[in-house]
Amino acid sequence: MFFTVLSIFPEMFDPFWAHGIIRKAIEEKKILTSTINIRDYARDRHQVTDDRPYGGGSGMVMKPEPLAGAIRAAAQTMPAAKTVLLTPQGRVFDQRMAQELASWPGWFWFAVATKGLMSEFVTTWLIMKYQSATTCSPGANWPP
Asked: In order of start, what are the domains of the chain with their CATH numbers?
């Protein structure tokens, strides 16, 4: 099974892959993991991935162009994988969901720490939304 995490902070996943049951699964080649830096697909020299909400308001939103570029790059390496958004508004991740996801050939995981994504982007690219946690965790975006 293949896991690719799309993040603007891909280096924060290195310790996650290096410890515990995830490390053991990687060593035994039960799973393959990778990260893609969403900033690599930003078009400006500062690699900006967020913007102000259209029409104003507080907070920031993820620009769709860098995220779409990162998903396209991930899809080239794993064409059959599905895209999963980790969000508090998603379905609760439980044993039934784990069994469903285990049948998939691979996943692209991403979480948006800004105010959100444009709804058109979500309907175009997204397969599933899952809760990243049912309790608070650092940044609320750490994988389940």
From this structure: 2-140 (3.40.1280.10)
Q: What pLDDT was estimated at residue 29?
A: 94
73-110: b or e for each residue (b if 16 or more CB lie within 10 Å)?
A: bbeeebeebebbbbbeebeebeeebeeeeeeeebbbbb
Categorise residue 127: left if φ over 0, alpha if ψ from -120 to 50, beta otherwise. Answer: alpha
Whether pLDDT at 79 is above 80 = yes
- Kindly indicate the confidence band of residue 138, based on its pLDDT and cuts at 50, 70 and 90: very low
Mean pLDDT of the chain: 78
Checking phi first, is residue 29 left (phi over 0); if not, alpha (psi -120 to 50) or beta? Answer: left
**Tokens found for residue 37:** 């830096």
Find the helix or strand (DSSP H, E) in which 74 lies: helix 64-77
Instruction: Kindly state the tokens that stand for 39.
Output: 């900033």
| pTM, full prediction | 0.74
